[in-house]
Design a protein that fits this description.
The chain is of the alpha+beta class. Helix content is 23%, strand content 27%. The relative contact order is 0.16.
Length: 371
Amino acid sequence: MAGEMTPLKSLDARYYTDPEIFAVESNGLLASSWQFAGHASQLQKPGDYFTFEMAGESLFCVMDRDGSINTFYNVCQHRAHQLVSGSGHSKLIACPYHAWTYELSGQLRAGPNIKAVPGFDRSEICLTRVPTENFCGFLFVNLDPNARPMDEWFPDVRQQLRAHVPLIDRLRPLEWVEIPESCNWKVSVENYSECYHCTLNHKTFATGIVRPETYDIQPQGFCLRHTTECQNLDQMSYPIDLEANEHAGDYSSWFLWPMFSFQVYPGNMLNTYHWRAIDANHVVVWRGWYSLDGAESETVRQLARQDRETTVEEDICLVESVQRGLNSRGYRPGPLVIDPESGVNSEHSIAVLQGWMRSAGDGLPSFDADR
């Protein structure tokens, strides 16, 4: 029929199963996008540091003498030995191989017998720095030395997050739970980025935390913003005070492409997801929970346990089943259910997300200001 629209179909399975596409993502998207390194509270005084990995690289964050936070590739500029491991404190960064020593700013300070080398200029040697941003106490890094600021990638998120979590500057990690999943990272991210499956698969979440009929997800730059209302108070799985502030009864989530999400439960309870891609078929998800000043909180602990035993376990089964299906020769990508009015039973957010995923898998630039 002339003029008839063709439904938009989901991505081909190869985007989730092909190791070559994963390699393209690792060298492109994952090396040129903002990704979570750690929480600023992990660095309390000059010389504190912690290591982490992203896009196949070992990196470390360290607090400088002026209180600023630097991120460097974890490699000595002499003969490439790794400099530090784990987390700790040091007044200087010393390579354990030949004792080349660097200031906390990354500048070479000294090395055994380097004065014997004619023309050796230590001022020209510095650890390779990585762009770093402190985003409401959360440290993000980008391996692209010319990275656009996070506020350009994720417009208005910083202000919205502070409005929903008024005391966010006092929050500290209470626990981080590591969750391995046997699926491609994009399968896990997609599952998080729609609630079309929630009522059927997440009974506790859909009846004891949010009202699914009010759920919606909309793009906001390279962010997918989730919004909904809390469940009726007599059905909530934990107590909240609706009078505490303007957003006490709201649920809101900000998924920051490609691998992080701030999630604020009713009662202004902040938790986070961050993904670390292992290979084409495996990802590790860290589920973070936070409390004021890092103090013990039975409410946070109870909610974390409930989440781990219900939503998280349910999602593991879902995403691992999807990955098995994507590897089936019988799979043919079906049409996405896109409702022009959006809402919980629509996959409009997946259409946006898969557009980003297709670009990443095809090796196109991560950031396009015209999007």
